[in-house]
Amino acid sequence: MSQLFRFLCLVCLSVFFAGCDSEEVEITVFHTNDLHSHMHAPKDAAFALGGVARLSTLLNELRSKEDGVVLTLDAGDFSEGTWHYSLDTGANMIKILDQMGYDATVVGNHDYLSGPDRMIETIKEADVDMPVLVANLDLSQYEKVESFREQFPKSVIIEKQGLKIGIIGLTVNDIAYSTYLDPAIVTNPVTEAQVQADLIRDQVDLLFILSHNSFDVNKQIAKSTLGVHAVISGHSHKKLSQAVFVENAGRQVPVVETGCWGSFLGKLQLKYNIKTKQVSFVDYDLNPVFSTYEKDPIIQSMVEAEDQKLNEFYGSDVYEVVAHSDIRLTHSDSHKASLGDVVTKSYRHLLDVDLAIELLPLTGVNVAPGDLTVKDLHDVMPHVFNYETQKEWTIKVWNAKAADIGFIVNVFYTAAQL
Question: Given 4, 224, 234, 320, which is the most exposed site by the fewest CB atoms within 10 A?
Fold first, then answer.
């Protein structure tokens, strides 16, 4: 009888502890931001990190180790940044993210450069299940508001393993680019975050915000939005090896960001207590996308297909070597920017003018020493691609007087505090 009693006690204890374990669900959020159509690892990337086919391999490997709820999110600017954008204004990247199993992304400022009409068509051409979110837009003056909202919802609720997870998307009001969105207007992301949170908070167990805004703004969103459990940040290209915590009504809300160009994959781990409905932080890792990783064959075949389309678009091999540089050409914000010198000298040479001016942050990527291909040189400049005219960046020529130039230079130097 005593043995039977002990056996029953052990059974009861095992059921009790199993019940305790089941009260907590592990949530893992893998995330990226600011991929900017970098299908291949940038030549100038440290340790040759990146490439979406290698990123997919890492993502699949890490996912396979998780037993709980797994989300994969991107915080915007997935499209414009390399020549591949000019093929279809980002539909190719949306297809790749969807194939990689992303649950959602958000519109970044580089993703709305094609304007609202073309944005609608881009999503239709991609024809995927992954939602592309954006909440903080005033569309009252836009005649295609219903069509736009069909393709770009403000939020999404995803159910996994019995948990309902709400995701809100917010974009940035970039002064340099906002006119491309006309007649749509970007509204205050902090205010809109709370509006959307109030709408879906009671319908979900967890609430995440995908925000393509400056890191400071994203911290404010984490601080002021009641009910939010994490902010997945993009836009600042800020590489964080640890989550940054912001206090919100007595809770600590993590804000995370991975840098840019797919060089790193973020991994945020949380726990959700089913009984208390409380969410707690567990861990955060920033995982490099090493060049030693095998390329996911499915994603690699998609990338190769886009490369072939690019060759056809240009009319010859875009990876043909056409130049060589003995030094690294940078676009850092300095009065001695080697890339800025090359760009403005090329304008002067092409147009036979006395003075050339360029906004340095709008130069694209750094140029690594060594052989340079057609695509390397093309990707130096931004790709404000007009799908209707099939043209990109336009150089304007101004027949100015010396006094006009003096005024402009003084304004630049004053603004730069030089």
Answer: 4
